[in-house]
Amino acid sequence: MDIKLINIGFGNIVSANRIIAIVSPESAPIKRIIQEARDAQRLIDATYGRRTRAVVVTDSDHVILSAVQPETVAHRIVDSDDDEGDIKETAEEDREEIE
């Protein structure tokens, strides 16, 4: 089994093989999922205090908050199939997107 790691912002890495969904945090059902995960201590906040732009749901029912757009995270997963990815490049993308 080939393990793929994806940068979800600020050097935080998640196993792409464990991701079920990458969604926007605005809807009421997603806000409910976030609160339920927080209550069950399954929430991982990887935003470094910034605005949550993507919510990553894993197969272990953990919910990960990211300050990077869902499209960007998804794009990194697709790109990782083509090559190993460049951590330095993704860090620069994060800075541009958040500013």
UniProtKB/TrEMBL annotation:
Database matches in InterPro entries: RemA-like
Region (Disordered): 76-99
Biased composition, class Acidic residues, residue ranges: 80-99
Pfam families (alphabetical): RemA-like
Alphabetized PANTHER family for the sequence: REGULATORY PROTEIN SSL2874-RELATED, REGULATORY PROTEIN TM_1690-RELATED
Family statement: Belongs to the RemA family.
Alphabetized NCBIfam families for the sequence: MtxBflmRegRemA, PRK04323.1
Protein name: Putative regulatory protein HF878_00060
Species lineage: Bacteria, Bacillati, Bacillota, Negativicutes, Selenomonadales
